[in-house]
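Incident log, support desk, overnight shift.

02:14 A customer reports that sequence design results differ from what the structure should imply. Their input is reproduced verbatim below. On-call engineer (initials T.W.) acknowledged and began investigating.
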C-alpha cells in the first residue's frame, strides 16, 4: 500500500536516559551493534523485529546494564536462541575465556522484566493514540512525533502479538506451571491450570462493588477477588472475562487513591491538625498514623469512607515482613545471611522511630488520639500499619509527564494483585492525562478465571522478603552484593600504592561495591576491579591499559580469580543450610511459625544457587588463568573476554 509523502511511516522509540550519559552512549552503540535504530520504518518487512530490538535496548535498566554479557549483547537483543547457544559454546572452547551461562531449554531473553517491558512499550507505541483515532482511522499529528497511519500500526501490532504468543507467553506459562507444581508438591507434567475460586461474599467483594459505584470512570467490571488453591487460599485478583492485550484491566479514578497529601487535606478535627503539622515528617509517617486511626475506628465500629479498604486488607494481627516477625525467627531463619544485618538494622530503626514520635504525641496531644492507647497506639499496631503501607502502596506520577515527582498510593482492588515474574501489566505508574485515572493496561492476553499478575519490580528474594515478606523459587533476579576491599587482598600497602589503585578505579569508573546474579555472567566491572586490586605493585604505576578489555598480567589474573573464588567460598561457608534451620528451630514453636521459616528457606536456597553458579564460573576462570601463566608467549587480547 502506498502512503502520501506528507504521512510519516516512521515510529520513534523513546530513550529516557540522559543524553550523553554513559548508559545513553552504550545504548546508542547497541542500536548499531543490533543493526537497528530508534526510528523504525513500519513499511519494511522486518519492522516488528527492528521495533522489538530497539524497545529491548531502551528498556534495559541499570542492573541489566551492569550485568552486560561480554561481547554478546547483539545475540541477546536479537533473541536468537540457536545463535546464542552456539556462540556460548564457542566462547567456552577458547582456553582462556571466563565462563558464560546458558539455559538451552528456554527462549533467551535479557530478562523476563526486559522482554515484558519491551513488548509493553512496543504495544503502547502501536496502539491507537485515543478513541477518536480508533473511530476515525486518523493518526494523532499533534504529538511531538507524528504517528504512522493506524492501519499500518495495526498490521505491525498483529505481528507483535504473534511473536509474543510464541516466545514470551510460552515462557510465562512454563514458569507458572513449574511454580504451581512446586507449590502443590506434584510433578510439573501433571500440573493443572491454576484454580481461582472467585469470592462471592466478604469485604474484598464488597470493596469491589463499592469501587464500581464510584462513577463511570471507575472500571473494575473485568475482575474479581479470588482465592488461590495452589497458595493455600491466599487472595489474588482474577479476570471474570477474556481480556485482550492492549485493553485496560482496571481504571481507578484519582479520588479513590489513598495518599498522604489527600489525607492531610481531608482529615478533620484534632487528628487532622496534627497530621498537617507532621506533614514534613514524610508520607510514611503520615500514612502509618492514619492507618492506625482507621483500624481503631474499624475495631470500634465507626464506619468511614475508607473502611472497606482496611476491612479487605490484612488486619493488625498479621506479621507481614521480617520487621515484625518474632526476633527468634529472624535469628534462626536469617542469621548468617547477607540480609540479616539489614533486617536487624531496619527493625531497630522502626523501633527508634516509634519511640521518638508516639510516646511524646500521646503525652502532649491526647485530644488527637481516640481509644485506648495500649490497644490502638502501641508499637505492635505501629509496625503493623507501617508494613501494610510498605507492602501494598504503589508509586505513581500524579499527572502524566508531570515534573511534580511521584507519590505513593493505595489503589483499591488493584492491591489484591500478586507479584509475578511474568506479569500481565507492567506500565501502571502514571495517571492518565485526560482524567487522572490510574490505568492498568494488559500487556498480554488474560483468559477468563486466570489470575492477574503485576510486577513489583525486578527484585531479588532479599528485597522481596524485606519489603513484602515472601520469596520466589528460581527467582531470575536473585543476587548477592559483594564489597571488595584493599587490605584483604594486599594487606597494608604503602599509601602511594593504594592511592594509585584508587586512581585507576576512578579512571575506569569502578567502585568496590559489586554484585553477582543467578542468571548472569560475572560482571566485567567486578572482574576489572579485582584485576586492579590484584595488580602487582611493580606494575601498578606503569599500567595504562583497560582492565575491562583484557588482563593486566598473567600473574595478577591468576591472583584475581583466586581472590574471587576465596571470597565467594567464604560467603557460602558462613551460611546455614535449610536443614540446619529446621534443626535449630525449637519444636515447640516450629509449627506455629512454619510459614516464616519456609520463606527463609526459599531465600537461602536462592542464595546457594547464586553462589554455586558464580563459583562454577570462577572455577573455570581459575583454570584458564592458571594455564595462561604457563604460556607466557601465547596471549591475545581476547583471551579473557
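02:41 Re-run completed on a clean worker. Output:
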Amino acid at each position: 500500500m502506498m502512503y502520501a509523502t506528507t504521512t510519516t511511516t516512521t515510529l520513534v522509540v523513546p530513550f529516557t536516559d540522559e543524553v550523553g550519559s554513559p548508559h545513553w552512549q552504550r545504548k546508542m552503540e547497541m542500536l548499531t551493534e543490533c543493526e537497528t535504530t530508534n526510528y523504525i520504518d513500519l513499511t519494511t518487512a522486518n519492522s516488528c523485529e527492528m521495533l522489538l530490538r530497539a524497545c529491548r535496548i531502551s528498556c534495559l535498566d541499570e542492573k541489566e546494564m551492569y550485568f552486560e554479557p561480554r561481547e554478546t549483547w547483539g545475540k541477546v537483543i536479537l533473541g536468537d536462541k540457536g545463535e546464542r547457544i552456539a556462540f556460548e559454546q564457542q566462547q567456552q572452547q577458547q582456553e582462556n575465556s571466563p565462563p558464560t551461562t546458558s539455559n538451552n531449554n528456554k527462549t533467551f531473553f535479557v530478562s523476563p522484566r526486559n522482554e515484558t517491558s519491551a513488548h509493553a512499550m512496543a504495544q503502547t507505541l502501536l496502539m491507537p493514540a485515543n478513541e477518536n483515532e480508533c473511530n476515525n482511522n486518523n493518526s494523532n499529528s499533534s504529538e511531538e512525533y507524528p504517528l504512522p497511519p493506524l492501519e499500518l500500526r495495526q498490521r505491525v501490532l498483529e505481528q507483535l502479538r504473534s511473536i509474543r504468543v510464541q516466545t514470551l507467553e510460552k515462557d510465562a506459562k512454563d514458569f507458572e506451571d513449574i511454580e504451581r507444581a512446586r507449590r502443590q508438591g506434584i510433578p510439573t507434567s501433571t500440573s493443572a491450570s491454576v484454580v481461582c475460586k472467585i469470592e462471592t461474599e466478604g469485604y474484598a467483594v464488597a470493596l469491589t462493588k463499592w469501587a464500581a459505584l464510584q462513577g463511570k470512570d471507575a472500571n473494575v467490571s473485568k475482575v474479581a477477588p479470588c482465592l488461590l488453591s495452589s497458595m493455600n487460599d491466599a487472595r489474588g485478583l482474577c479476570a471474570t472475562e477474556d481480556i485482550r492485550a492492549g485493553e485496560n484491566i482496571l481504571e481507578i479514578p484519582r479520588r479513590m487513591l489513598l495518599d498522604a497529601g489527600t489525607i492531610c487535606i481531608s482529615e478533620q478535627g484534632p487528628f487532622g491538625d496534627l497530621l498537617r503539622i507532621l506533614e514534613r515528617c514524610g508520607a510514611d509517617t503520615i500514612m502509618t498514623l492514619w492507618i492506625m486511626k482507621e483500624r481503631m475506628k474499624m475495631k470500634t465500629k465507626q464506619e468511614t469512607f475508607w473502611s472497606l479498604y482496611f476491612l479487605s486488607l490484612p488486619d493488625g494481627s498479621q506479621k507481614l515482613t521480617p520487621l515484625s516477625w518474632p526476633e527468634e525467627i529472624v535469628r534462626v531463619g536469617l542469621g548468617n545471611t547477607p540480609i540479616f544485618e539489614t533486617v536487624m538494622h531496619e527493625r531497630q530503626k522502626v523501633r527508634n522511630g516509634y519511640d521518638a514520635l508516639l510516646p511524646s504525641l500521646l503525652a502532649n496531644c491526647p485530644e488527637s488520639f481516640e481509644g485506648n492507647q495500649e490497644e490502638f497506639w502501641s508499637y505492635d499496631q505501629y509496625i503493623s500499619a507501617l508494613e501494610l503501607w510498605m507492602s501494598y502502596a504503589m508509586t505513581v506520577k500524579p499527572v502524566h509527564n508531570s515534573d511534580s515527582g511521584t507519590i505513593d498510593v493505595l489503589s483499591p482492588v488493584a492491591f489484591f494483585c500478586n507479584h509475578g515474574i511474568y506479569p500481565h501489566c507492567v506500565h501502571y505508574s502514571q495517571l492518565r492525562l485526560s482524567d487522572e485515572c490510574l490505568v492498568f493496561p494488559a500487556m498480554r492476553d488474560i483468559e477468563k478465571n486466570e489470575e492477574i499478575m503485576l510486577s513489583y519490580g525486578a527484585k531479588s528474594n532479599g528485597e522481596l522478603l524485606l519489603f513484602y515478606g515472601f520469596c520466589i523459587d528460581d527467582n531470575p533476579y536473585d543476587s548477592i552484593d559483594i564489597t571488595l576491599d584493599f587490605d584483604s587482598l594486599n594487606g597494608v600497602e604503602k599509601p602511594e600504592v593504594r592511592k594509585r589503585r584508587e586512581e585507576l578505579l576512578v579512571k575506569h569508573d569502578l567502585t568496590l561495591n559489586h554484585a553477582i546474579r543467578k542468571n548472569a555472567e560475572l560482571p566485567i566491572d567486578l572482574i576489572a576491579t579485582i584485576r586492579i586490586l590484584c595488580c602487582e605493585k611493580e606494575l601498578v604505576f606503569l599500567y595504562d591499559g583497560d582492565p575491562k578489555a583484557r588482563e593486566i598480567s598473567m600473574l595478577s589474573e591468576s591472583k584475581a580469580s583466586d581472590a574471587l573464588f576465596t571470597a565467594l567460598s567464604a560467603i557460602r561457608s558462613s551460611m546455614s543450610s535449610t536443614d540446619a534451620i529446621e534443626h535449630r528451630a525449637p519444636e515447640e514453636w516450629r509449627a506455629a511459625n512454619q510459614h516464616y521459616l519456609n520463606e527463609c528457606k526459599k531465600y537461602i536456597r536462592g542464595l546457594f544457587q547464586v553462589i554455586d553458579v558464580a563459583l562454577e564460573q570462577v572455577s573455570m576462570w581459575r583454570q584458564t588463568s592458571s594455564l595462561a601463566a604457563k604460556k607466557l608467549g601465547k596471549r591475545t587480547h581476547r583471551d579473557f573476554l
